[in-house]
Amino acid sequence: MSGPAWDGYLADPFVLRLPDGGYAAYGSGPPAASQPSDDRVFQALWSPDLRTWHERGRVLHRLPPEEGDEYWAPEVAVVGGAYWMYYSVGRGIDGHGVRVARADAPFGPFTDTGVRLTPGERFAIDAHPFRDDDGRWYLFYARDVLDHPRPGTHLAVVPLARPDAVAGPPVEVLAPFADWQLYERDRAMYGRRFDWYTLEGPFVVRRLGRYWLTFSGGAWTGPGYAVSWAVADHPLGPWTPAPDGDAPLLRTGDGLVGPGHDSVVVGPDGADIIAFHSWDAGRTRRQMRLRRFEVTASGPLIGSPLARA
Question: Which residue in 25, 69, 158, 271 has its CB near the most CB atoms, within 10 A?
Answer without folding.
Answer: 25
